[in-house]
Amino acid sequence: MNEDEPRVLVEAIKQLDRLIRSVRSLPLRPPYPSITSPGSGDAITAGPLLVRVTTNRPDLAHTVKLLSGDLGTVHDTQGVTFDTPTSGFANITAPDLGTDEVDFVIECRATTGSIAMVLVKIPAAIPPTMTVTISANAVPPFTVGQVVRFTANPVGGLAPRTWIWSGTDVAAGTMGDFIDVTFTAAVLAGKVKIIGEDSTLPSPLIAFSKFGPFDVN
């Protein structure tokens, strides 16, 4: 072995050590998280929500928050679980805040660095289709002069509702949740009918029903 070889080897080791130390002293890049799902503007539903994120620093702890649209309220906070070298997920829960449309902000951040945000919404609830039946406080056949109360029994839709009644011995344009009818003549096929609409916007729901035919003696 050349007598200079040990000295050269030692010097090479020292240079390598200095290089490693200099690399270690370099500042690490700050994290830049990104939310990949859901997307900004997406509609979500109340309940569990899976949020997918990516980052250049999976070695750092990341959290996902669900905030109100004005950022004033934190509804949920969960840590990110990384299932690939650069991406992970968090399961958060969106609250049910009623029937109106609600905006939320999903935020992802590490302990330092930039913050990723997307805006999502829970759309306004669509009321179920409105149906209606008519009930009477007496059982036909009815008699001339008898007063019978007919009542609208709606299911679904959105209150308040407007009903317009028509039929045997019913004055045109009579409105209300019920109607009292006094029969003035004998008929073999009497009918009482309603048509109504609810308060759903922008398009009210329409329902129609009839009671009869029935005899009036």
Entry summary:
The protein has one helix at 5-25, and strands at 34-37, 47-54, 62-68, 74-79, 81-82, 87-94, 102-110, 115-122, 131-136, 147-155, 162-167, 174-175, 178-182, 187-197, 206-216.
N- to C-terminal distance: 131 Å
Number of strands: 15
Helix content: under 10%
Mean pLDDT reading: 91
| Radius of gyration computed on alpha carbons | 36 Å
**Biggest sheet: strands, sense, closure?**
4 strands, antiparallel
Low-confidence stretches: none
Given helix and strand content, the structural type is: mainly beta
How much strand content do the residues show? over 45%
Order of helices and strands: HEEEEEEEEEEEEEEE
Please, what is the oligomeric state?
single chain
Global outline: rod-shaped
Total of helices: 1
Q: How do the strands line up in the largest sheet?
A: 1-2-6-5
Detailed description of the structure:
With 217 residues, the protein is mainly beta. The protein is built from 1 helix and 15 strands. It has one helix at residues 5-25; strands at residues 34-37, 47-54, 62-68, 74-79, 81-82, 87-94, 102-110, 115-122, 131-136, 147-155, 162-167, 174-175, 178-182, 187-197, 206-216. It has a 4-stranded antiparallel sheet with strand order 1-2-6-5, with no helix packed on it. Strand 7 (102-110) and strand 8 (115-122) form a beta hairpin. It is rod-shaped, with a radius of gyration of 36 Å. It starts with a helix and ends with a strand. The relative contact order is 0.14.
